[in-house]
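2024-03-11 09:14:02 INFO worker-7 job=invfold-0412 stage=load source=structure_tokens
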């Protein structure tokens, strides 16, 4: 992807801390209007990469660009990039609303934006008047997200935003991030909650030991994992014999149901058709994001 067309571009990005190579020749690009999941085992270099993108650390090699420039060279950066790298940067005695007001004043953003955002993240009313020290971790995540959105940015960079959220909060976050992408914004979100990421993102970037493992649309990535086919037929023994003859080993699940690993529905359907086998059900079970993640990162351990 060309630099001019990329909202985010990492080009040979490298960062060392003494003998530790935290990020190692990492390259990827993000297009506008997408939600990209940034995945990797603990210590893979995700947070360091985000810090390099936001100018909070200097690379030892390569370049990090947002909107074709280094972050520090952007005009009015808060109006282009919103970021949450941790949800603990609060004065514990300050009320939620006052925290956002102080951020708005410092950034020369109209304070009327504060109440709008508190409603957006569902921290308005009594919650806005509570002191931050009384907030749950999930409430702090929402407050941090509101702060990142003060400048109405085009790009949102989030590090583990689902931490501390209950299932209802995770669903809210998922819908919220998708709505931002629907407005044409770009979301770059690191997370270890793979099941949640799988329901949220368009694309996935997986790194391990600071190096790129894969960059891919989510649907193409999960399709790479050989799934299984679940098939139900009143002619189970006959289908089993045909599958064995075709080099496919079927596992009997229950009664008239079989599970056939390493196959797709088209092949099973063709075998059944040629053998005049009646099918009641033919279902593809694809690999999950967790399957892909564990498989790909295990290769580099």
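2024-03-11 09:14:09 INFO worker-7 stage=emit residues=301
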């Amino acid at each position: 992807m060309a630099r001019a067309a990329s909202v985010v571009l990492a080009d040979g990005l490298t960062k060392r801390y003494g003998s530790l190579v935290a990020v190692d020749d990492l390259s990827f690009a993000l297009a506008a209007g997408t939600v990209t999941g940034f995945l990797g085992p603990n210590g893979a270099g995700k947070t360091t990469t985000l810090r390099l993108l936001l100018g909070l650390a200097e690379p030892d090699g390569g370049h990090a660009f947002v909107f074709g420039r280094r972050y520090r060279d952007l005009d009015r950066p808060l109006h282009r990039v919103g970021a949450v790298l941790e949800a603990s940067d609060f004065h514990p005695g300050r009320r939620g609303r006052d925290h956002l007001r102080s951020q708005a004043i410092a950034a020369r953003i109209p304070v009327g934006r504060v109440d709008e955002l508190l409603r957006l993240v569902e921290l308005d009313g009594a919650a806005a008047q509570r002191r931050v020290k009384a907030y749950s971790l999930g409430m702090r995540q929402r407050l941090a997200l509101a702060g990142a959105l003060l400048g109405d940015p085009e790009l949102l960079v989030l590090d583990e935003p689902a931490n501390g959220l209950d299932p209802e909060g995770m669903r809210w976050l998922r819908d919220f991030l998708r709505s931002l992408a629907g407005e044409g914004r770009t979301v770059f979100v690191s997370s270890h909650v793979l099941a949640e990421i799988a329901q949220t993102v368009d694309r996935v970037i997986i790194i391990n030991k600071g190096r790129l493992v894969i960059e891919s649309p989510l649907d193409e990535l999960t399709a790479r994992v050989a799934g299984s086919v679940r098939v139900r037929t009143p002619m189970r023994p006959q289908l089993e014999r045909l599958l064995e003859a075709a080099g496919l080993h079927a596992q009997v699940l229950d009664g008239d149901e079989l599970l056939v690993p390493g196959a797709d529905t088209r092949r099973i359907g063709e075998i059944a058709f040629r053998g005049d086998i009646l099918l009641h059900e033919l279902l593809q079970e694809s690999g999950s994001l967790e399957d892909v993640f564990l498989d790909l990162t295990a290769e580099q351990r």
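2024-03-11 09:14:09 INFO worker-7 stage=report msg="DSSP finds eleven helices and 13 strands in the chain."
2024-03-11 09:14:10 INFO worker-7 job finished
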